[in-house]
């Protein structure tokens, strides 16, 4: 998405031409001469296309987190936006008032990486919507306008904001065979674009049916005024034949009503179970979503947790009442969407169970001093004589470790945000003060660009704590080779 100043102006975009000429999610007719990236996006169709592709994912995730999560999601996007500054050339000293050019290829690479990061949080219909080709994504929005679900003054710009989500929900209430979710699944996409496509609902269910009756004039001219007994019996048979479709229709309506009640009851029980487990799901998500050393959020453990919850708590409710496989899948997908939305809401401070920090087991909630002990224990388990200093005038060394005549110092940073270059400076100072041969900064989080630049200058190793033992052993091996 465009810079933070324009993030709130998404719905002000002009029309987007399908297929070739793409425009970004903001108004290019405004003056953006001071904004290098905005200027580039208004001039470069391919870069604008990737901006819109990000919007697909962002607005799907926005629908999942709900209004209570919009602010935190927006702040997260703004923080990730900093990476795009690398795509802007330095200001020319001779032209300080002229915005430098932005590189479109660099922008596309960084924007695609940000898109993939957020897309990893999506599942089910939300993921199908985010993966859809942008032209088809826009075409569906235009179709909702044509069908009257969106105002005819609306613009199909590829941004599925609140009005588009409301239109999708209304369309799903009227036409979709699935539980309304606000997302356009692949099945729903086909049905929106081709209303008479056989997609679990017969096309005939949406077309008026004509019924032919014998002509009154023909009957008057061909039948006598009096009716013989045999002919009277035939007339009665004709009446019964007319009643058969009515009986069948009534029976079908009864069965449909009964099935719908069963489906609605099942979903009510599923929703009740998910909401009852909300706090546990929030805690599990906090523990299972892990950021690796490259800043990528690893979702595999959280996905497995959702699967386990579905198999043990949700599927038994569904299987006991629903036999139709497609309806089962729909219920599971809708359940996943609700799980993601509720689990993504901020966890209240008092919501978690009583937690006692344990230095032998890593937990993001652990005491920072226990985190230092945890790092020391990792090294001890590998044969290092490692001690956590715990504020003992160590000049920045949280852990001092020695093995085979080699001394290293470790800065331990238990962070929820990004570790900056001050940690690198502290570790380097500690290395000098302790007379150590190497310094390490270990964290559960990630490092800023400035921290990595400082590390490249000072030689301090920046690692995730899972890499601590391997890094220490590599330092030992390298120094041992030099002294051999």
Automatic annotation (TrEMBL):
UniProt-annotated stretches for the region Disordered: 195-231
InterPro entries reported for this sequence: Peptidoglycan-bd-like, PGBD-like_sf, PGBDSf, Restrct_endonuc-II-like, Restrct_endonuc_IV_Mrr, tRNA_endonuc-like_dom_sf, Type_IV_Methyl-Rstrct_Enzyme
This protein's name: Restriction endonuclease type IV Mrr domain-containing protein
Taxonomic lineage from the root: Bacteria, Pseudomonadati, Pseudomonadota, Alphaproteobacteria, Acetobacterales
PANTHER family: MRR RESTRICTION SYSTEM PROTEIN (PTHR30015), SLL1429 PROTEIN (PTHR30015:SF6)
Superkingdom of origin organism: Bacteria
Residue ranges of every copy of the Restriction endonuclease type IV Mrr domain listed in the record: 365-470
Residues in the signal sequence: 1-19
């Amino acid at each position: 998405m465009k810079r933070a100043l324009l993030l709130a102006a998404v719905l002000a975009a002009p029309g987007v031409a399908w297929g070739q000429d793409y425009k970004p999610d903001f108004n290019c007719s405004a003056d953006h001469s001071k904004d290098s990236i905005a200027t580039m996006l208004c001039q470069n169709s391919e870069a604008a296309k990737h901006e819109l592709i990000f919007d697909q994912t962002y607005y799907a995730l926005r629908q999942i987190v709900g209004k209570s999560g919009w602010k935190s999601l927006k702040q997260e996007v703004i923080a990730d936006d900093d990476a795009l500054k690398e795509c802007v050339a330095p200001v020319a000293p001779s032209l300080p008032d002229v915005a430098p050019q932005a590189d479109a290829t660099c922008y596309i690479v960084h924007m695609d990486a940000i898109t993939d990061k957020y897309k990893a949080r999506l599942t089910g219909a939300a993921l199908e919507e985010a993966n859809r080709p942008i032209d088809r994504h826009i075409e569906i929005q235009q179709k909702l306008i044509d069908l009257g679900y969106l105002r005819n003054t609306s613009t199909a710009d590829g941004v599925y904001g609140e009005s588009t989500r409301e239109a999708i929900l209304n369309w799903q209430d009227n036409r979709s065979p699935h539980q309304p979710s606000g997302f356009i699944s692949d099945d729903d996409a086909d049905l929106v674009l081709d209303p008479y496509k056989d997609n679990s609902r017969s096309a005939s269910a949406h077309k008026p049916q004509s019924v032919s009756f014998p002509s009154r004039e023909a009957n008057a001219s061909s039948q006598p005024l009096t009716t013989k007994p045999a002919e009277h019996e035939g007339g009665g048979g004709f009446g019964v034949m007319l009643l058969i479709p009515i009986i069948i229709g009534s029976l079908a309506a009864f069965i449909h009503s009964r099935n719908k009640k069963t489906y609605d009851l099942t979903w009510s029980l599923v929703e009740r179970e998910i909401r009852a487990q909300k706090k546990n799901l929030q805690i599990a998500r906090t523990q299972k979503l892990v950021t690796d050393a490259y800043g990528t959020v690893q979702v595999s453990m959280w996905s497995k947790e959702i699967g386990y919850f579905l198999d043990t708590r949700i599927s038994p409710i569904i299987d006991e009442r629903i036999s139709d496989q497609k309806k089962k899948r729909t219920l599971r997908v809708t359940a996943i969407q609700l799980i993601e939305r509720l689990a993504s809401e901020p966890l209240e401070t008092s919501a978690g169970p009583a937690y006692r920090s344990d230095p032998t087991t890593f937990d993001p909630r652990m005491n920072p001093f226990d985190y230092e002990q945890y790092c020391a224990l990792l090294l001890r388990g590998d044969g290092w004589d490692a001690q956590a200093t715990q504020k003992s005038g160590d000049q920045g060394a949280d852990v001092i470790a020695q093995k085979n005549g080699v001394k290293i110092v470790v800065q331990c940073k238990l962070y929820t945000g990004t570790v900056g270059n001050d940690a690198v400076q502290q570790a380097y100072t500690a290395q000098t003060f302790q007379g150590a041969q190497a310094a390490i900064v270990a964290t559960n989080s990630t490092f800023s660009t400035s921290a990595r630049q400082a590390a490249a200058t000072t030689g301090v190793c920046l690692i995730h704590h899972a890499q601590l033992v391997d890094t220490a052993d590599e330092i030992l091996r390298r120094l041992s080779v030099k002294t051999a």
